[in-house]
Amino acid sequence: MDIQTERLLLSPARLADVPALFAFLGDARAMQHTHRCETLRECRRHVAGHEWQRRKRGYAPWTIRSRADGAVIGYGGLYEDPFDPGWGVEIGYWFAPSAWGRGYATELTNASLAEARDQLRLAEVWAFAKPENLGSGRVLDKAGFEKQRYVPEMERWLYRHGLEG
């Protein structure tokens, strides 16, 4: 199911999306604060692993397109990480550098929280951000996440959002 926000179209990822996603998921600068897909094949595996989670759980990161022109500008949303399980439902977002600084991560995060609360009826959602990723920390703060603790083995802060109310 597709979701539209004011400026974004969120849709389940398709294998046909992978080359456009790899343009930034494989870019060292774009992924400086997180895992980078080294090859197109690894990116396909990454997307396919998340889509398997969508079939199993009903949610996974979306391909994020600009409503203005339909261009793929990001990947993100709700997920339970199939490659590092055990952290619960998370929100994550990864954008092409050309999309940085435009408020898209905030727009995606707010849509994801609404989906988690209103459709999935989740009690909480988690997120991670590296200390040096100030933009991501601001997005999570604005969305109402609370910093829980530093996870040294991941070199990231763990954030929680309680969805009650």
Automatic annotation (TrEMBL):
Q: Specify the superkingdom.
A: Bacteria
Q: What is this protein called?
A: N-acetyltransferase
Q: Which UniProt keywords apply?
A: Transferase
| Gene Ontology molecular function: any one | acyltransferase activity, transferring groups other than amino-acyl groups
- Indicate whether Chaperone appears among the record's keywords: no
CDD domains (alphabetical): NAT_SF
SUPFAM superfamilies (UniProt xref): Acyl-CoA N-acyltransferases (Nat)
Is Thylakoid among the key words of this record? no
Give start and end of each N-acetyltransferase domain: 8-164
